[in-house]
Amino acid sequence: MGARRKARELALQMLFQHDMSGNRPEQIIDTFEELQKSKPNTREFATKIFKGTIDHMTDIDEMIQNQAENWRLSRMATVDRNIIRMSIYEFLHETDTPKLVIIDEAIEIAKKYGTQKSSQFINGILDGILKRYNLAGA
Predict the structure, then answer these.
(1) At 71, is the pLDDT very low, low, confident or very high (cuts 50, 70, 90)?
(2) d(Cα 46, Cα 41) in Å, to the nearest integer?
(3) Within a domain: residue 103?
(4) pLDDT in tens, 85-125
(5) Domain span at 91
(6) Eight-class DSSP state of 73
């Protein structure tokens, strides 16, 4: 597994923990043993995605809500919701990564951590966000 995929998985796990516990991001980072054991570049990218997603959560959630018209965020599976959130963060703030790579990574992570239908759901939402916000060419 590549360093970036590992970092994304760690970011997802921290976002999941934040979503479920409401603990402060710094507390999650400091106490997440698997993150602390990771290589520095993996730890740095995971932390950047996690904190960036948290910092931009209001705008990201608004984008998701606008795209997923018939789905309330609270009704989405926690894993799916957080994969979508961190992918949108990457769309907007990690511009060196191609958008289709971000979607592919989200789908692969969804296959590992989500339900049987997660990858299709996430793909549909992310593809729609790219089109709705004209991010595909950005």
Answers:
(1) confident
(2) 9
(3) yes
(4) 999 999 999 989 999 999 999 999 999 999 999 999 999 99
(5) 3-132
(6) G
Residue 100 counted as domain residue: yes
- pLDDT score of 138 more than 60: no
Distances (CA, A) of 19 to 25, 28, 99: 10, 11, 25
* 3-class secondary-structure state, position 23: coil
pLDDT digits (tens, 9 = 90+) for 22-62: 999 999 999 999 999 999 999 999 999 999 999 999 999 99
Task: Please report whether residue 84 resides in a domain.
Answer: yes
- The answer to whether position 26 is within a domain reads yes
Task: Give the single-character DSSP code of 81.
Answer: H
> How many domains does the structure of the chain reveal?
1
Pair of tokens at residue 58: 């209001």
Cα→Cα distances 130→2, 5, 18, 84, 138, Å: 25, 21, 26, 12, 9
- The CATH number of the domain where 37 resides is what? 1.10.940.10
